[in-house]
Amino acid sequence: MPGQRAGAGLSTVRQFEAAGFRAWPAAAVHYDGTWVVRLTAGHPAKRLNSVNPLDPRDVHDLPERVMRAGRRFEAYGRPLTFRMSPLAGAPLERHLEGEGWIRFGDSLVMQADLDNAAVNGAMDQIPLKDMGRFVTATMTTHATDATLRAGLSEIIGAIQPEVGLFALERGDEPLTTAICVHEGDLAGLFEVATAEAERGKGHGRRLVLSALKWARLRGARRAWLQVEADNPAALRLYRGLGFTELYSYHYRRRPEG
């Protein structure tokens, strides 16, 4: 079951889910009741290609609605995927479980107070203005397939809140990259990655702190992020920076074959 940590009521979950939709926008968004169907032809990321239920009470006509969502995903050439946050609710979880849907991609939403010594003492860094340069850098640190360049550029270009594109480089060699999305009192971190040969050297910590300082100087008070639960290196980094778990989510997909 997706879970909530102490103090994370459904209203808080809704706040962060909505912030996530705005900060990492899908190319197409459809609604079926309170289900948000997000689809992106240019990028296969699960967050951008998933059904996101937003009310645990909205569980009527489940077989028919699942079928409708499946037709939309089929038109995009994507496997039908549900993203199960605490807003999905137990009845939908039981329905998918009963139909044999596979659970995968367990993830955590974490938050941190930005008024702390580590952020205050971070190195000032100006975000990149050249999106093409940033996309090249982040595709290198993530070892991303070159065919996804256009799709990633489209996603970043569609972000509506203020966005900071950060890269730590050695000459022309990108070491670490991150995206920081500032909206009101929130600063969301996305696409944080360090080149494989440069991991464990403190580059990620340095760049993340600089990105958070940039957002704090613009009025952000809380940082947040989404991270896969089976990524121990990232969890060590974020917990070391004061991030704590707010709630969890996972994905469901029909078994292949």
UniProtKB/TrEMBL annotation:
GO terms for molecular function: acyltransferase activity. Its EC number is 2.3.1.-. It comes from the Bacteria. Residues 126-257 form the N-acetyltransferase domain. Keywords: Acyltransferase, Transferase. The keyword Transferase applies. PANTHER family: AMINOALKYLPHOSPHONATE N-ACETYLTRANSFERASE-RELATED-RELATED. This is GNAT family N-acetyltransferase. It comes from Mesorhizobium marinum. The lineage of its organism: Bacteria, Pseudomonadati, Pseudomonadota, Alphaproteobacteria, Hyphomicrobiales.
